[in-house]
Write a structure and sequence with these properties.
The protein is an alpha+beta fold. It has a single domain, classed as Nucleoside Triphosphate Pyrophosphohydrolase (Alpha-Beta Complex). Helices cover about 25% and strands about 20% of the residues. The strands form 2 sheets. It has a two-stranded antiparallel sheet. It has a two-stranded antiparallel sheet with strand order 3-4.
């Protein structure tokens, strides 16, 4: 689908000053996928700044999970707008595996450096 080009993202979240970014990244992975991070060597991919100003730090680890089985935490919001009613929605609506080149088209453009760094770390 063309409408989702540049709209995909890695699991990410916010953490407080003094928190360990890696510990928080692992927590976010669990919350947004329903899976524990795979055991293995973590490869730091550095950080990028999103258009919103949010700084995202990332790590890569080799692993596998069933993208169809992803189960994320939920958030509540007023829906329909101005109705006074609240509904819960999943934080992640779907997951999918992509090749590195396919991911370049799908991922948020600010996160493309993560793909480049990943490619350079495995070649």
């Amino acid at each position: 689908m063309k409408k989702d080009l540049g709209a995909w993202s890695i699991p990410k979240g916010q953490y407080a000053v003094g928190d360990d970014p890696l510990v928080e990244a692992k927590r976010e992975f669990v919350e947004e996928t329903g899976f524990e991070p795979p055991a293995g060597t973590l490869h730091p991919l550095g950080e990028v700044t999103l258009a919103s100003g949010k700084v995202v730090k990332a790590w890569a680890v080799e692993g596998d999970c069933d993208a169809v089985a992803i189960r994320s935490n939920t958030f509540s919001m007023e829906w329909p707008p101005k109705s006074g009613k609240h509904q819960d929605f999943p934080e992640v609506d779907r997951a999918q595996w992509f090749s590195l080149e396919g991911a370049r088209d799908k991922i948020n453009p600010a996160q493309i450096p993560f793909l480049d760094r990943l490619k350079n770390s495995v070649t």
